[in-house]
Design brief:
This protein is an alpha/beta fold and 262 residues long. The protein is built from 8 helices and 7 strands. It has a 7-stranded parallel beta sheet with strand order 3-2-1-4-5-6-7, sandwiched between helices. It is globular and about 55 Å long.
Length: 262
């Protein structure tokens, strides 16, 4: 299938590694020009070199930290300078540290709200006028399966990510007439460094081996295994595509059937 995004300009947040990197690679392979955003200049440069070596979409990078108050200005300026505008915005952020609800002090809650919610929304608002003027745009927000089924031990994520779900759905209705879609993509257990660290933390808490924790987790997934970054990224690329122009205001799961709710 031709995704129809050759020459489209994509900005992917938190693209140093994991899901963000995977999405950036998938979009570039479909011919999009991609600006990778993240905290590690060395890693971003290596990612872009690998993408550019494939000879499909062009890749560039900007070092910017979602925890930095200047994040939106830094990234928006870089997108204008290096891409000339943004047609596809992939909102993404690293997951917050595990913990219980009583661990969410006001300072911690506010800090993660700013990085996981506020700055992603503010950046989207900054880029929307250009998308409206061109009559085409894709805003894809990567969240967590905790949006629909809160995950034990991840109180901060369970609290903050649902705010993005409400925002994305509301935005979709407001911008559909401009040819812009807004969707939320929920990863289940996708094999990334983040999942490895969560399994390690669970093993330490329970006094079991990491292998035992993973085996138990995979047994609870109907697909019987963790998902791959490539599988998740392919789903993301489709949602950013021309053929997906009638998919908006949706919450899409990529979880091997793990969520039990309808």
């Amino acid at each position: 299938m031709d995704l129809g995004i050759t020459g489209k300009r994509a900005l992917v947040l938190a693209a140093s590694r994991g899901l963000g990197k995977g999405i950036a690679v998938a979009l570039a392979r479909e011919g999009a020009d991609v600006l990778l955003c993240g905290r590690s200049a060395e890693t971003l440069a290596a990612n872009c070199a690998a993408i550019n070596a494939e000879g499909r979409g062009r890749a560039d990078w900007v070092r910017a930290d979602l925890e930095d108050a200047a994040f939106v200005e830094t990234v928006a300026q870089a997108a204008g300078d290096r891409l000339g505008g943004v047609d596809i915005l992939v909102n993404n952020s690293g997951g917050p540290k595990p913990g219980a609800t009583e661990d969410m002090g006001a300072d911690v809650l506010l800090a993660f709200f700013q990085s996981m919610v506020l700055r992603q929304i503010t950046l989207a608002n900054r880029l929307l006028p250009g998308m409206k003027a061109r009559g085409w745009g894709r805003i894809l927000t990567v969240a967590s399966s905790g949006v629909i089924e809160p995950i034990p031990g991840l109180a901060l994520s369970n609290t903050l990510r649902p705010a993005l779900a409400g925002w994305s759905k509301t935005l979709a209705a407001e911008v559909a007439r401009y040819g812009i879609t807004s969707n939320l993509l929920l990863p289940g257990s996708i094999l990334t460094d983040r999942l490895v660290s969560l399994d390690a933390a669970a093993a330490e808490r329970s006094g079991r081996t990491v292998e035992a924790v993973r085996a138990e987790s995979e047994a609870a997934i109907p697909a019987g295994r963790y998902g791959t970054v490539e599988e998740f990224a392919a789903t993301a690329a489709f949602l950013c595509s021309q053929p997906a122009s009638y998919v908006t205001g949706s919450l899409i799961r990529c979880d091997g059937g793990a969520a039990r709710s309808v």
